[in-house]
Amino acid sequence: MVLKNYASDPLVSRGRLHIEPGTTNRNAFQRDRDRIIHSSAFRRLEYKTQVFVNHEGDMFRTRLTHSIEVSQIARSIARALECHEDLAETIALAHDLGHTPFGHAGQDALNQCMRDFGGFEHNLQSLRIVDSLEKRYAHCDGLNLMFESREGILKHCSITNAKTLGAIGERFIHKTQPSLEAQIVNIADEIAYINHDIDDGFRSGLLTIDALSSNTLFATCAKEVKGFCSESNGEVFINEVVRRMIHWMVSDLIINSQEHIQNHHPQSTDDVRRMPPLINYTDSMLTQKQQMKTFLRHAMYEHERVAAMTDSAKSTVHQLFQYFMQDESHIPEAFKNQSKDTYPRIVSDYIAGMTDRFAIQLAATIV
Ligand code: MG
Q1: How far is the CA of 197 from the centre of ligand 1 (A)?
Q2: Could you state, in order of their start, the residue ranges of all structural domains in the chain?
Q3: pTM higher than 0.70, yes or no?
Q4: Could you say which of 23, 165, 202, 254 has the lowest number of CB atoms within 10 Å?
């Protein structure tokens, strides 16, 4: 792998929390990726909502397929910019591990339940999972990942929480940037969900080609597709448009970021962290992307069909939280005993770890 001096390098890493011997066949970022793939939290992403609740249909994205799409896009960008592809893949596969059942609705509800006990934030929960909640090794809790993987996973963090996190929280206090690989994954996440939500939104009947065509980016790509494919082809037409949108967003990002990197000329990852964000779109693409996000919010995320699901998801989370808070014996002994946290935090960890269907089934038994 050819790496620029601004790319993260496992050989000059800030390392793991618990020292471990290295291995000959894989670099440390590859090992991190493999640890994530073998984790229980990763497997559960298969049954967690992206936008549509898991049982609404087998064709829609789940957190797992979303994470795989993010990793594909992130790896392409990392390779083009000569950054560390394995680190980008690791961060992408882990970036949503901390999501509750029922997507953002679940997170909002759990955060509300936890308001007197330190709140709940899915980014911080992703870090909790890899740092302590996964139990796989005899010598330590968590997956004992490299600093750079953990830094990338913690995308946002309040100053209050950052102060409790040691080295990993410092960048939120000093307002510096993470590695380029982490910056790449942040944007790859957005490229993935904008485009797959268009696809899922169309398949679900919430979005039409007409409505989507009010967006500059969609309309520009659709115009090209109309040259050889009729709108009446439905899914195929949408797929042809979406693949072009991904291509244009990724290409714009790569060319613009290459220019930023050249202009700022970082000589090391520490330089990268001190500089302004170097991975970003051109102003024109930024405007088109924002326009699409606003459209998706109104047409899809706030659509009454999605909103009805959101309301029922929130009440399920509230119901489960009350049930566990009423009686400590409702939480499995083994789960309780492995934690040194306060009881409300144990409840929050237990609910956050549930899949959509487990949460629904359990809530149905406690009515
Ligand atoms: Mg995501």
Answers
A1: 12
A2: 27-365
A3: yes
A4: 23
Query: How many angstroms separate the CA atoms of 3 and 367, rounded?
Result: 57
CATH of domain 27-365: 1.10.3210.10
Q: What is the pLDDT of residues 74-85, one digit of tens each?
A: 999 999 999 999
- Label residue 244 by pLDDT band (50, 70, 90): very high
Tell how far the Cα of 141 is from the centroid of ligand 1, in angstroms: 25
pLDDT average, residue stretch 130-139: 94
The residue whose two tokens read 């209050």 is 160
* DSSP class per residue in 309-344: HHHHHHHHHHHHHHHHHH-GGGS-HHHHHT--S-HH
Number of neighbouring beta carbons within 10 Å of residue 1: 10
Question: 49 C-alpha vs ligand 1 centroid, how far in Å?
Answer: 11
| Residue 266 identity (one-letter amino acid) | P
Helix or strand run (H / E) with residue 68 = helix 63-80
Q: How far is the CA of 367 from the centre of ligand 1 (A)?
A: 32
User: 40: phi > 0 → left, psi -120 to 50 → alpha, else beta; which?
Assistant: alpha
Say whether 146 sits in a helix, a strand or coil: strand
Which of 53, 144, 151 minimizes the C-alpha distance to 106?
53
Query: Angle 17-23-29 (CA atoms, 0-180°, nearest 5)?
Result: 55
Each residue's pLDDT tens digit, 174-213:
999 999 999 999 999 999 999 999 999 998 899 999 999 9
What distance in Å separates the CA atoms of residue 278 and residue 264, rounded to the nearest whole number?
8
366 Cα to the center of ligand 1, angstroms = 31
